[in-house]
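Lab notebook: predicted structure, single chain.

Context: the supervisor wants predicted structures on file for every construct in the current expression panel, including those that have not yet been purified. This is the next one on the list. No modifications to the sequence; it matches the entry in the shared construct table.
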Amino acid sequence: MNELPAFRPLILFSALLVLKMGAVAVATANARRKSKQVVNPEDVGVNPGSRAASEDAPATLRAKRAHLNDVENIPAFLLLALLFTLSGASATAGWAYFGTYFAARTLHTIFYLGARQPWRTAAFFVGQLTQFGIIVQLLLKLF
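Prediction complete. Output recorded below exactly as produced.
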């Protein structure tokens, strides 16, 4: 696979996207720690000063929604990026598509956690358009 032109950007941006998803999970845990509010009673023991509640604090819920958005969107991109790479896509196309998607998803997370609209929606749509571009390229190669 190392001979495929888009292999290097595939590896780099796939790894960065997975790390970013992990960072949002850490942000969720940090929001929970700061709020001192947990939903599982047994978590009180590992979060000093916290209390159990029926739902997470608003900041924790926001971070969880940002993480869920990643979980809903990034796996499909990773599959498309792999197929695009396996199809023999150029390195330039790989760097452009994968880098744009990574930047869009990173900005989406920043804007989501910071409650910044319309920027969050704009970043989301840039990511979606990037995926659409990859799909069009794959279909053009197929037909």
